Amino acid sequence: MSESFRRIHSLSPRLANQIAAGEVVERPASVVKELLENSLDAGASRIDLDVEQGGVKKIQIRDNGVGIMAEDLPLALSRHATSKIHTLEDLEAVASLGFRGEALASVSSVSRLTLTSRAEGAEHAFQVVTEGRDMTPEVSPAAHPQGTTVEMRDLFFNTPARRKFLRTEKTEFSHLEEVVRRLALSRFDVGFHLRHNQKTVFALPPARTEMERERRIAQLLGNQFLQQSVVVDINNNALRIQGWVGLPTFSRSQQDQQYFFVNGRVIRDRLVAHAIRQAYQDVLYNGRHPVFVLYLYVDPAVVDVNVHPTKHEVRFRDGRLVHDFIFSSLHRALAEVRPDANAATDAVTLDATPAPVVHGQAAGEFGGQGYMPLNLPDSRPTGAQIREQMAGYARLHPEQGGEEVSGDASYSSAVAQDSSSAFDPIAAFTASSSSGGVALPKVDEHLPPLGFAMAQLHGIYILSQNQHGMVIVDMHAAHERIVYERMKVAWQGEGVKSQPLLVPVSLAVSEREADSAEEQQEFFQRLGFGLQRMGTETLVVREVPALLRQADVPKLVTDVLSDLLNIGQSSRVEAHINELLGTMACHGSVRANRQLTLDEMNGLLRDMERTERSGQCNHGRPTWTQLSMKDLDRLFMRGQ
Description:
Elements lengths: L2 H4 L6 H12 L3 H14 L4 E7 L5 E6 L9 H4 L11 H5 L10 H7 L2 E7 L6 E6 L7 E5 L4 E7 L6 H4 L5 H18 L4 E6 L2 E6 L5 H12 L1 H5 L1 E7 L4 E7 L11 E5 L2 E2 L3 H10 L12 E6 L5 E2 L10 E2 L2 H17 L1 E2 L10 E2 L25 H4 L3 H14 L14 H4 L10 H10 L17 E6 L3 E6 L2 E6 H20 L3 E11 L2 H9 L1 H7 L2 E6 L2 E8 L7 H14 L5 H17 L9 H13 L13 E5 H7 L5
Parallel strand pairs: 1-7, 11-13
Antiparallel strand pairs: 1-2, 2-6, 3-4, 3-6, 4-5, 7-8, 9-10, 10-13, 11-12, 14-15, 16-17, 18-19, 19-20, 20-24, 21-23, 22-23
Helix pairs in contact: 2-6, 3-8, 11-12, 17-21, 17-22
């Protein structure tokens, strides 16, 4: 090793900038991200982006922000020069997207850069040009409206080794387009216009109203995203979450429609991802990924955005609080998705009706044999009870076409029918309407969300008629969800029961894991585990949850410890218990080819309307679908 190599020396500005560029500028999309964030921080309300050859040949971004003063233009291209941070207090509560002052310096070191700007209130614009060399930028007058234009050409022209790592034009542009999509989703108040090779890709005007925001969402993510998603807006003073979460039935094979923003900054965070995945745990089909566009607002002082060069990761001061808030908000929003009487398609919306709390055998609680199948004829309502349900529904909804029913004027009195006979809902409406006693609503105007059963198809599906058309229900999947939710309520009411092990299980763990287990003794006790530390790296399991006595105890405990160390909390035990309850619910549900009476079918439909997450079975499969009259007319070419 030579003497000169061992001596400490300062890096040249050019080399230092190119080293920084290795962190900041990975591909054209990285350049676009940094420059767009600068435009947004400058208060721009319109941003025009023009690229060629996927952004490798040319990237030009023009905005109408506050601009840069002429004397500050050379400084803007130097490292660690910024207008966004002045004191340490500013860094502790960053409110801007950029703050390090490395973007322009890094981009200028690996490309030919032209920066033109006219500051707010200035009479003239000025321009500065660099070509990736260690040179003093020269400022010259230029013609330009208020705002800034940054033009970058020939990315990595002076670093051919890095240029070899770029992909095809199509691939590079897809990454660039995704960056624009994310920022367009984060700032609805700004108009974005993207052109690639002289062709318009995005033309997004500012979206200030709810309808305009939904239009932008549809343009960027498709109409199906809006039709198959639920609006979320929950505030607990310290935290607020807004946005759209997709229904479990509208899942994807890839994580390509997952957007999460913290104070307007798009992030990818393990803690956030875990909370969302946990919220979808009971309703998502195996191997599928949810879709969402969510905005979390917190005090900037409690989130650290200075933990990654690309600012994609953040660190929360109280990660446990944020995790629990995201999980509980989304979990409740998804739980409240139930059939809606106003939905004309198979999409469902939020219904604030609370799910009934039930206990005992009627709730599907398990007995000593592992589960107790429900006895449908004994647990389902009779014909008289169904008629009373219909009467109650009419009394609650007099505005839907009929007069309010009161006193003895009810469906049960208007329709004289023996409770033991098969009940015909259409005959009930016909008889009551022709009796002249009570003014009742029309059939197509006054039905519950899932309507009333008409028939059973091959012992598997229930065919029902509601005000929009025909509803098809998978009776086993629907009943499985109903029993499962009731089992969970019963289990939570009883609490976790522990069972001592005849032979305690010894675990070899790391000292860090053993320390965590000792600190979290109370947490493990709530889960039903009895743990004792026997050495520096040894734990002994003496008690386990009664339901999980057959589980792989060593693996379960070590997985819980791993979650506690990496995320701060764990739901693995609850997931295992829910999985077992789901299996028991599956065995305890009505099986295929079981012939049900109309009373039983209607009772199942009413239970679905009251049960949380009734749109999916325990495995994430849909339980019902809607065929509207338009769909049926299209099938039979009516009116064509």
